[in-house]
Amino acid sequence: xxxxxxxxxxxxxxxxxxxxxxxxxxxxxxxxxxxxxxxxxxxxxxxxxxxxxxxxxxxxxxxxxxxxxxxxxxxxxxxxxxxxxxxxxxxxxxxxxxxxxxxxxxxxxxxxxxxxxxxxxxxxxxxxxxxxxxxxxxxxxxxxxxxxxxxxxxxxxxxxxxxxxxxxxxxxxxxxxxxxxxxxxxxxxxxxxxxxxxxxxxxxxxxxxxxxxxxxxxxxxxxxxxxxxxxxxxxxxxxxxxxxxxxxxxxxxxxxxxxxxxxxxxxxxxxxxxxxxxxxxxxxxxxx
Length: 288
Ligand code: PDD
Description:
Blueprint: E1 4-7, E2 10-13, H1 24-28, E3 31-39, E4 42-43, H2 46-59, H3 68-80, E5 87-95, E6 112-119, H4 125-130, E7 132-138, H5 153-164, E8 169-173, E9 179-182, E10 186-191, E11 194-197, H6 208-219, E12 224-226, E13 236-243, E14 247-254, E15 257-258, H7 264-283
Parallel strand pairs: 7-8, 7-14, 11-12
Antiparallel strand pairs: 1-2, 1-6, 3-4, 3-5, 5-6, 8-9, 10-11, 10-13, 13-14, 14-15
Bound molecules: N-(5'-phosphopyridoxyl)-D-alanine.
């Protein structure tokens, strides 16, 4: 299989795509990233992902080396140059570039732009029925979780701790025990009849799947609240996570608390999302 990557203006075999060891992404995690789903050739909310990427880059003072529009075209080209892929995720990373190691970057560094394409295996029916187990952990990340930074060490440690405790995801909680988000997912609860998720502020990433879920829920008459919520709150019936790679998965346990999974609201939202994805896929089936 000839996997093709993109590095600073060139498409090349993945195995030949090398980064300088003084790239600031490697030495300081000085960069931002995106993960975008491509369903049989149609990108899911490409504009929103690019918008978030440019916002993240701007927030840390990096000017991406190409325009948003051009980057979108390059992502499409990368998908087409990997014909073994049907559903894929395109990973995009922009770092501040290469300088001899110094905390203060020199003004003249040229940002590094990297893209890779991987098979997207959406969770199947069995995985949806099984759901996830989650643990809670005191949030130990920085104050700007809205920036999609490549500095993911806490998220890696959180996921390792979840694994150690027999779970698949760790949920970050604030000082008051409110659930913020997961290591690589946003979290929704159903409390009473209402779909609840933490507001989009500096403590969580503004997930593109989160945004799509909220939109679909509102369109289909599910009542929605963006507010802080607690895993021991009275009336908590269902919980689910959303992300580009999982789309939506039910949560069957938070720490020791068991939940009905998948509950009725989770099933309804999941069905709405799957319909939406199928309609995108139908738009442009890759020639076999
Ligand atoms: N992660 N919150 C965090 C901390 C995330 O890392 C992610 C996604 C999300 C969900 O965002 P979206 O719906 O836009 O994918 C929320 C990606 C998939 C990753 O790191 O691989």
